[in-house]
Amino acid sequence: MLSAPLAQQIARETSEVIGYNVLITDDHGIVIGSGDPSRVGSFHEASVDVLASQQAAWHTAAEAQRLRGVKPGMTLPIVIDGEAVGTVGITGSPRQVRRFGLVVRRQTEILLQESVELRSRLLRERALEELVRDIGSFDADVVDPAFLAGRANELGFDLGVARTVVIVEVDEPVPAADGGRSDVATLRPELLRTLRQTFGSADLVAAMTAGRFAVLPVLGRRSGGTAEDRLRFGQAAVRAIAAGHGFGSRAGIGGAARGIAALQEAYADAGDALHLGKGCAPGETSYVIDGLRAHQVLAAVGHRARSRLVSVVAGPLATHPDWPELRATLIAWCESGFNLVRTADTLHIHRNTLIYRLEKIERLTGRPWRDHRSTLTMYLACHASQLDSPQRGSK
User: Fold this and answer.
1) Rounded to an integer, what is the distance from CA 63 to the centroid of its chain?
2) CB-based burial of residue 342 (10 Å sphere; 0-12 exposed, 13-18 middle, 19+ buried)?
3) What is the pLDDT of residue 133?
């Protein structure tokens, strides 16, 4: 509990302030910190009785001569949670140093308690990070899910309730002219605190890297975790980071999940949604995997297979100057259920403009735009094209 580096820092700084040498021992009476570095590592015999009794002791010059490693002054116990973890001694005339004794001991105990609490928080943060990483890489053939569930319970989280996974990625800020703006790595604890304040106490939130965070929020019982409800988690995270820190960010949201195995799939889906959404929907900041399933499957088949699909199905359409616009039209046509009115509303164009575009696609491909089976194949080719040239178009 009482580390040598911390003890040396406290002893050195306190000695400089009060003008008397301060030394700190461990729970065996060994000096681990002193304003006089030559005393570090020596045995301080007076500390043994002080540790046992938890009572302060004063030693005159004559008394100090009879004790090993002791000089005139006073020795006080350092007590944390009722346990003596060491002692603090002040060298000098007992009458002179007595007025500093209680203050020095109390200050040492406060600094030590703060150090313990900080270490405890850091250990908890590390445990949460490792838990989320283990969920993300879970393999039932390697790890017993009950083991992960038990670790989560020890940290105060029930992984048996319905949850989803949200992965938030924060942009590095543009450097200010005066160089005064902090980067994401520096503000990581503050960003983590903001996310925890945004979500509930039952929602697991952990930092993964300097600019990436994972949230495993509990889903509402009534909603059943619909795509719209899950989207709100990502939007809430993005808004909170922008409002609290002025940083841009994006969120990928996985499916509804209950249990370790399902959470692992949701974690993978959230990562895919974030990666795919940035390219296929650049105007948005939160992406639910439900609307990117086709992209996810196409991303898994590889670039060569996607290129062949685009070449064979889209043909000359894929090299036409209006391809990004025509591609968006085909996607909206399919996702609007082949309904002219809904498609025109989605694209914010007149119905006649939509028909003109569809007829243009028919002329270039030789496939009737009312042939829904053929159009669905074109729909997949459009998504494949988005994956390989996301900067050229949006959904």
Assistant:
1) 57
2) middle
3) 94
Q: Report pLDDT for 180.
A: 54
What are the phi and psi torsion angles at 180 (to 5°)? Answer: -90, -10
Alpha-carbon gap, residue 5 to 223, rounded angstroms = 53
Structure-token pair, residue 385: 């094209």
Rounded Cα distance, 69 and 30, in Å: 10
How many Cα neighbours within 13 Å face the side chain of 302? 3
Could you tell me the mean pLDDT of each successive run of 10 residues in the chain, 395 residues long?
83 90 93 93 95 93 92 92 90 86 84 79 91 93 90 93 95 63 80 94 91 93 78 95 92 94 96 89 90 88 88 88 91 91 94 93 88 87 81 42
Residue 243 CA to residue 222 CA, distance in Å, equals 29
* Other beta carbons within 10 Å of 91: 21
Cβ-Cβ contacts under 8 Å for 254 (sequence gap 6 or more): 164, 165, 166, 230, 265, 266, 267, 268, 269, 270, 273, 289
| pTM flag (> 0.90) | no
Instruction: Evaluate the CA torsion angle 303, 306, 308, 310 in order and state its sign.
Output: negative
Hey, what domains does the chain have and what are their CATH numbers? 4-120 (3.30.450.40), 137-292 (3.30.70.270), 302-392 (1.10.10.2840)
Please state, in angstroms and rounded to a whole number, the distance separating the CA atoms of residues 286 and 3.
45
In this prediction, residue 274 carries a pLDDT of 94
Q: CA nearest 342: which of 355, 353, 333, 329?
A: 333
